[in-house]
Amino acid sequence: MKPYCLTVPLTQLASLAIIAGALASAQAQPALKDAFKNTFLIGAALNEDQFSGKGGCADSLIPAQFNTISPENVLKWESIHPDPRHYRFSSADRYVKYGEKQGMFVIGHTLVWHHQTPDWVFLDGTGAPIGREALLNRMEEHITKVVKRYRGRIRGWDVVNEALSEDGTLRDSSWLKIIGEDYILKAYQSAHAADPKAELYYNDYSLENAPKRAGAIALIRKLQSQGIPIAAVGLQGHYKMDWPAPAQLDETIQAFAALGVKVMITELDVDLLPPATHSQEAEVSMNFELEAKLNPYTNGLPDSVQQALAKRYEDLFGVFVENRKSISRVTFWGVTDDNSWLNGWPIKGRTSYPLLFDRQCRPKPAFDSVIRVAQPL
Ligand code: GLA
Fold it and tell me: Does 336 contact ligand 1 (Cβ within 6 A)?
């Protein structure tokens, strides 16, 4: 037998088989939104490229996999209302239109937050701190303008984001310092008046930890007693490999459900990189020095770690599915590992692997384990 004749066609055949296999598996790839269609909505936060048809391989993945979207940045105050006299709606308009075209449940994120809000909001024309009434007016005007613009189209709003500190007390933000505690109530009242049919949410991180959870429960109860129809609490879900424990997550979901509100996982990702800090906070202003030992997987993820991530996702979705009557939505913060904020936080320049799709939009073993959890449903 002449080896030459045999090797060339075999190599070509092998490549053809790989391509055919990849095509077949892309076609046969199950969809998260179908797997969980009787369970909860499944979503992703999108950046501007992704809802403008410039997201590369994510462009076909997004409508195939998800039935709800959140805007990563375009509805934040600094994007939409950068100076006192101007609103810039073009990107947000495109985001909402994209979601409608795809028949998705469109989320608004976020109206009142202590980050990504320009300094001018808290200052008067002379650069001095603004007073309570003026800031209240400004906040109410902003909420009314933005919520009314998308009335009936944005179906649910993160009205207030991250109003609590880790000990469960109210965060000492400029909103609290200038207006006082009732800024929260006023924000929800304005949003409700601007679109009475939109769902109103409270969204925060590390609510799985008991002190902060207790603070959130007190906050929700207070809003309910003041007549605010809070529809759901958003657990951001910026998780680690070892936090929160499944039992802690389960307990948290049940504690909020007992208030008569739904629970949503709104910004899910799992950080498997070595921690720069032992804090469980997802405080966006944290920033640590890049060191090689904190960025070990620049050339790809070892299989053992890939499998550990798959197991972690299996456990998390196990808890979500167990609590499916209380959970209305699970949204990932990003689509592929490539565009996750965890490549830049809390250390800039790392290679992170927190999501279900890799840098080429291929499903990871974690995707398969999530689909497996959904199988019996
Ligand atoms: C917080 C915010 C999000 C986003 C993430 C990190 O969780 O709610 O809007 O900024 O941080 O990207």
Answer: no
Residue whose C-alpha is closest to residue 329's, from 107, 176, 113, 49 = 107
Q: Residues near 265 by Cβ (< 8 Å), separated by ≥ 6?
A: 234, 235, 236, 237, 320, 327, 329, 330, 331
Confirm or reject: Cβ of 284 under 6 Å from ligand 1: yes
User: Residue 239 forms beta bridges with which residues?
Assistant: 270
With beta carbons less than 8 A apart as the criterion, state whether 117 and 175 touch.
no
The pLDDT score that the predictor gives to residue 377 is 66
- CA distance readout (Å), 61 to 55, 133, 205, 336: 10, 47, 27, 10
DSSP3 helix / strand / coil % (the chain, rounded to 5): 45, 20, 40
Packing angle of the helix pair 303-322, 246-257 (nearest 10 deg): 30
**Can 267 be counted among the known catalytic residues?**
yes
pLDDT computed for residue 278 by the predictor: 81
Residue 95 tokens, joined: 């985001």
- What pLDDT is stored for residue 79 in this prediction? 98
Q: What are phi and psi of 230, to 5 degrees?
A: -65, 125
Structure confidence at residue 280 (pLDDT):
82
- In CATH, what class is 38-374? alpha beta
Average confidence (pLDDT) per 10 residues, the chain, 377 residues: 41 48 58 97 98 98 98 98 96 98 98 98 95 98 98 98 98 98 98 98 98 98 98 98 98 98 98 90 87 95 98 98 98 98 96 98 98 85
The helix (run of H) or strand (run of E) holding residue 210 is helix 210-225
Q: Is 133 a catalytic residue?
A: no
CA separation for the pair 130, 117 (Å, rounded) = 15
- Which residue type does 18 have? I
CA trace torsion 146, 148, 150, 151 (10° rounding): 150
- How far is ligand 1, taken at its centre, from the CA of residue 31, in Å? 25
Domain extents in the chain: 38-374
User: In a 3-state reduction of DSSP, which class is residue 219?
Assistant: helix
**Ligand 1 contact, 331 CB (< 6 A):** no
CA distances from 190 to 117, 139, 233, 315 (A): 18, 9, 18, 39
pLDDT at 223: 98
Label residue 299 left, alpha or beta by phi (over 0 means left) and psi (-120 to 50 means alpha): alpha
